[in-house]
Structures are given as structure tokens and as C-alpha cells.
Amino acid sequence: MKKLLTVILILTLLSIPYSVKSAKAETNVRVPVLLYHVVSTNPDPNNLYQFSLTEFKKHMDYLNANGYTTLSIDQYYNIINKKAPMPKKPVMLTFDDCTEDFYTNVYPILRKYHMKAAEFAITNLIDTYGHLTTSQLKTVFYNGIDVENHTTNHLDLTTLTHNQKYAAINNATAKIKSITNKAPLYLAYPYGTYDADSVSILKSLGYKAGFSVSNVLSTDTSNKYGLPRIVITNGDTLNVFEKKLLNGH
Ligand SMILES: [Zn+2]
């Protein structure tokens, strides 16, 4: 009997490392990163990137009612690098171009649900007509919204010289840091386009990641300097939204 117990004990001990290993290998990292632009009470029906506030509310109600966890950008980055556990239903919300509706329409809803999100700002447009002001950006930043880089002027980086690219990224870094006191570590490429030079500039400036546009979910094998975002476009009903959350398209 004692011998049998010893054999069982040895077998159990032997199987522990194996079961831990296989449990880890089964971890399936999949995170949808959603991209919104303008969210308006009166969206232009011919503009794909203007979205109805009424529909936007339905999307956020859906996330809230269905147990989704919205991530900060650092949480997202740690999850896809397997340095943080993934909540059951993770989602990352991103907003581009720092239009003023982010403050007037989007932010109150995010606050209502205690949701996290990131705003990618075009820094030359801050404090210009129809865009977020420095003071609004400070308010959202100090209330948990990440403020990140979308370049100074929103030009397609692949059309610029090295020096122009560097300035578009680096001057925007400085501007955001002057507002939030924190250097941005993530950049969204204008139009989602980038090249090897854009990536090496990001790396040289200490950026952790770059976001592109590609309608798939992020995984632990995603290219960190070409992370996929799922575009939400004008007319995306709740049905389409549910599909995009699950599959990216
Ligand atoms: Zn943009």
C-alpha cells in the first residue's frame, strides 16, 4: 500500500509541470481594438467616418450589459505581450483625430459606464475650430483617458521624407507631453499606412507600439508596430457591431 501511494505521489508530481505548461499554451489572447472617428447627433450620411450618437450609445450599452471590460492602452499592451491576465471579454476603444464631439458626446457616456479609452490626437489641430482644446484634453486625460499620438498634421507617413516623418512624430510627442506631462508611447498611423522607416523612428523615440487599421482581432502574435484596429463606420448596426467584436469584420 505504501509503495502504491509513493507511486501515485511520484506520478502526481510528474504531471504538475506538464499540466501547468499545457494550460498556459491554451491561453487564447484575442482582443478587439475598435476605432471610432466623429460621433455626432447629426452625422453626414455620406461620410463613413461620422457615426450616430444614438447608435454609439447602443454600442456602449451592449458592452456594459454583456460584461465587457474596456482596457487602458497599457493594459491592452501587457495582455497582448502576455504580461497581464486577460479579462473574459476584453475590448479596447480608440478614437482618432481629436474632434470636439469626443468631449461633448463620447466622454459623458464613457464616464457613465466607467469605461477606458484612448484618444489619438493630431496635435496641430488641438485648439482649432471643431477640435478638442488643451483644457478638454487635460480633463479627459486626468480622468483616465489615454492621450496618444496621431502625428502633427495627419499626412500619410509613407509619402514623407525621413526628416518630415521624424518631425511629424517627434513634434507631436512633445506637444502631447506638454499637455499631459506624460510622453505618449503609442502612435496611430494616419490612414493606417506606415513603412519600415516609420517603425524605426517610433522605436528610436521609445514608442512601444504603432496602430494600423486591419479588421482582425489582436493576438499575442500581432506585429507590435502594425497592430490591427477594427473600424466602426457610419451605419454599423448593433448586429454588425456584435460581429466586429467577435471576428473583427
Ligand atoms: Zn486619423
Automatic annotation (TrEMBL):
Q: Which GO terms describe its biological process?
A: xylan catabolic process
**From which residue to which does the signal peptide run?**
1-22
Q: Does the keyword Hydrolase apply?
A: yes
Q: Where are the transmembrane segments?
A: none
Q: Which UniProt keywords apply?
A: Carbohydrate metabolism, Glycosidase, Hydrolase, Plasmid, Polysaccharide degradation, Signal, Xylan degradation
Q: Which GO terms describe its molecular function?
A: hydrolase activity, acting on carbon-nitrogen (but not peptide) bonds; hydrolase activity, acting on glycosyl bonds
Does the keyword section mention Cell division?
Answer: no
Q: Which Pfam families match?
A: Polysacc_deac_1
Please state every residue range assigned to the domain named NodB homology.
89-249
Enumerate the subcellular locations listed in this protein's record, separating them with semicolons. Secreted
Name a GO CC annotation attached to this entry.
extracellular region
Q: Which PROSITE patterns match?
A: NODB
Name of protein: Xylanase/chitin deacetylase family enzyme
Species source reads Clostridium acetobutylicum (strain ATCC 824 / DSM 792 / JCM 1419 / IAM 19013 / LMG 5710 / NBRC 13948 / NRRL B-527 / VKM B-1787 / 2291 / W)
Q: What taxonomic ancestry is recorded?
A: Bacteria, Bacillati, Bacillota, Clostridia, Eubacteriales
